[in-house]
Amino acid sequence: xxxxxxxxxxxxxxxxxxxxxxxxxxxxxxxxxxxxxxxxxxxxxxxxxxxxxxxxxxxxxxxxxxxxxxxxxxxxxxxxxxxxxxxxxxxxxxxxxxxxxxxxxxxxxxxxxxxxxxxxxxxxxxxxxxxxxxxxxxx
Length: 139
What we know:
Number of helices: 2
Largest sheet: none
Order of helices and strands: HH
Oligomer: single chain
Number of strands: 0
Mean pLDDT: 93
Helix content: over 70%
Distance between the termini: 156 Å
Radius of gyration: 53 Å
Shape: rod-shaped
C-alpha cells in the first residue's frame, strides 16, 4: 500500500501539469488519491477545530461559573465585612458603657467610704453629746 501511495505521490505533479484531456487513468487515480488525502486531512482539521471549539466553550462555561462563584463570594465577603464593622462598633459602645460603669462604681465606692467615715465621726460626736447630756442632767 505504501509503494502504491508513493507511486501516486510521484505521479501527482506530472498529472497536474498535464491538460485534463491528456491524463491517463493512472494520472486520474493519482489525482483522486491526492484528493482523498486532502479531503481526509480537511475532515481531520474540521474535527480538530470542532473539538477545539468544544473545549473552548467548555472552558468559557467554567470561567463563567467561576466568575459567578467569585461574585457570590465577594458578596458574602462584603456582607461579612459589614457585619464585622457593625460588631466592632457595638463592642466599642459596650466598652464605652463598661468604662462609664467602672468609673461610676469607683465614684460610688469612694462616696460610700466618705459616708462611712462621716458616719463614724457622727457616732463619735453623738457619743460625746450623750455624755454631755448625762452630765447636764446630773446638774
